[in-house]
Design a protein that fits this description.
204 residues; alpha+beta; three-stranded mixed sheet; 56% helix; 12% strand; globular
Length: 204
Amino acid sequence: MAFLFTQKQNIRTHIGGRLINFSIYFKTPFEQLIEDEYRSKGVLTAADLDIQVIALLFHVEIVYYNGVSCSDNDMRVIFLNRYDDLFKQTMIFFHELCHVLRHAGDQRRMPQLFKQLQENEAEMFSLYSTMPFFMIEKINFSQFEAESIGMIAKEFQFPSQFAQLRLKQITERIAEAEFMSAFVYTATTMDENMYISSSTLNIQ
């Protein structure tokens, strides 16, 4: 899988006793695509993530009714249950928005594997689009992890367990980037040492 390394200032913060370097967080092309779309449409803060605003910007209609939430990709309509709470409506909206913007076909008639691929992508879309990294990195985090999770939850108006999931994903991605950087450094050093040894032998 390809990743895009962010090019930005060195942003470090302590969370849960760990030093987190946001500057080495890397984004998948999918995550970068969502960010680029948001920036191009002026979606720059958590307040801009209101589903009515996003629906208008992406030319999607929301219909509230009494049935099961779903979407009509061809008509670009997302149906939400009027009795669900705001968090559930929001998560379903962004999940279905992915289907409307990126997917085709009727899932009731497609192979299970293909359907699962679409569902997996819609879940990742929900995570990236409801709490974009470029908004999260602007938060002045506490050194305590629980407080940092609460700050994300407050910023995006989501339950703390969902904010915790996003923060966990970010810190794990950063840890992976640090590991990759260390591995590349070690491999480069070994290559250099091998080259020096070989050159010394050639001189003799």
